[in-house]
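User: Can you predict the 3D structure for this chain?
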Amino acid sequence: MGTLADHIEAYIKKMLRESQTNSIELSRAQLADVFSCVPSQINYVLTTRFSLERGYLVESRRGGGGYIRVGHVHVGNRLNHAVHLLQSIGPELDEKQMENILARLQDHQVISRREGQIIRGITQQEVGTVTEGKDILRASLVRALIFFIIKLET
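Assistant: Here is the predicted structure, written as structure tokens:
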């Protein structure tokens, strides 16, 4: 019959298979309601069953409009570095760290110079609109944009 974690994993994998983009966005609370469990159970499944080592990227944003983005990636040699960099982005990212990450991605030909400029421009524009939490917003944006580019490559 399987454990609750097995059922949650199967549900998420089914949604991924049905997705045309090979990624999905979920609400932690809604998923917990579907399985009549606490949101921490969802976190447990995502952490243990949807790791980078298993070929998944998971991005989470908490709060009222929070979501979980899960994507299945087929990491080739060229993208190994991008995945490593995604893992290294913590909850905050200052501008110098962002520049270093973008430079590395360009050096490893994961992103083009133009894609780097787009990421930089979007991030600077959005971060410039807030007075507090700039490094948190920058980290979230850079992660999401790199995630998007990796998804386009696979």
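The mean pLDDT is 85. The longest strand covers residues 56-61.
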